[in-house]
Design goal:
Layout: H1 2-14, H2 18-31, E1 36-41, E2 51-54, H3 58-66, H4 74-81, E3 86-89, H5 99-109, E4 115-121, E5 129-135, H6 140-168, E6 172-174, E7 177-179, H7 181-191, H8 196-203, H9 207-221, H10 226-241
Antiparallel strand pairs: 1-2, 1-5, 3-4, 4-5, 6-7
Length: about 240
C-alpha cells in the first residue's frame, strides 16, 4: 500500500490538467481493485457548473451535468451534512427523500453505479467537494478495500482535492494573460484534439459555450486560431517543466 500511495503522490505532483488528474486516480484505483471514481467540486455560484473529474461512463456524466443532478443527488446532500466518509447503495439504508432522487439513483444503476464509498471534503476554503469510489455490486475486492484502507482513501481524496484546487481552480497566467479555470480547461481539451462538441460533452456544457470560452482565449492572447492558442499553452508548460 505504501508504494501505491507514493506512486499516487508522484503522479499528482506532475499532473497539469484534468486528464492527468483522472489518470493519476484511475491508476491508483485500479491497483486497489476499485473500478471507478468520481470527484465533484460544487461551484461557488448557483448558475455555475460543478467541476467533475471521473472515470464513470461518459454518457452518464454528461447526462448528470446537463440535468444539474448535483442539486438533488442524495450522495452530495449527505456529503454536505457530514465531513465523515460514508458508504451508500446496495445493503445500506436508503437516504432518498424524493421521487427525483430515486430516479437519479435508478439511472445511475443502469451505468453500473450501484454502491459507493464517498469522502466529503470540507476544507473551509470554498464550497465542498466529494470523491466517490463506486462499484456495480458488493463484490469482495471492493468491500475488502474499503474496510482495509478507508483512512488511506480519505487521505487520497484530500490530496487529490488540494492538488486539483491549486492547479485547476485558480486563474491561470499564460504569457502574462489571465485565463479563467474554464477557459483554460476548454483550451487544454482543444490542445488534446477535442472538438468544441466533444469538449462540451466532457464538461457538460454546450458546444456554443465551449466556443465562447475559446473565443475569449483567442481574444486575450491576440491569436486568430485555437491551434495558435494551444501552441502557446504547450510552449509555456514546456518552459515550466524545464
Amino acid at each position: 500500500m505504501h508504494r501505491t500511495f507514493q506512486t499516487f503522490i508522484d503522479l499528482l505532483s506532475t499532473a497539469e490538467d484534468p486528464v492527468d488528474f483522472s489518470d493519476a486516480m484511475a491508476v491508483t484505483a485500479t491497483a486497489l481493485e476499485l473500478s471507478c471514481f468520481a470527484y465533484l467540486a460544487l461551484p461557488g455560484a448557483l448558475d455555475s457548473a460543478p467541476r467533475l473529474i471521473s472515470t464513470y461512463p461518459g454518457k452518464w456524466t454528461s447526462h448528470y451535468l446537463r440535468s444539474r443532478y448535483e442539486r438533488i443527488d442524495p450522495v452530495i446532500a449527505q456529503a454536505l451534512q457530514t465531513p465523515e466518509p460514508f458508504q451508500w447503495g446496495i445493503g445500506f439504508p436508503s437516504r432518498f427523500t424524493s421521487p427525483a432522487q430515486q430516479q437519479l439513483m435508478d439511472e445511475a444503476s443502469q451505468f453500473g453505479i450501484r454502491l459507493g464509498f464517498t469522502v466529503p471534503i470540507h476544507d473551509g476554503r470554498g464550497p465542498i467537494a466529494a470523491l466517490t469510489f463506486a462499484a456495480d455490486q458488493q463484490a469482495g475486492p471492493f468491500q475488502n478495500c474499503i474496510k482495509s484502507h478507508s483512512r488511506v482513501l480519505q487521505l487520497m481524496a484530500m490530496y487529490f482535492h488540494a492538488h486539483v484546487r491549486r492547479k485547476l481552480m485558480t486563474d491561470y497566467r499564460l504569457d502574462g494573460v489571465v485565463l479563467s479555470p474554464r477557459e483554460l480547461e476548454c483550451l487544454e481539451w482543444a490542445a488534446r484534439g477535442k472538438t468544441a462538441w466533444e469538449t462540451g460533452k466532457i464538461l457538460g456544457i454546450s458546444r456554443n459555450t465551449v466556443a465562447s470560452y475559446l473565443n475569449n482565449v483567442k481574444d486575450k492572447l491576440g491569436v486568430r486560431t485555437v491551434v495558435q492558442a494551444a501552441t502557446r499553452l504547450a510552449a509555456v508548460k514546456r518552459e515550466q517543466r524545464n
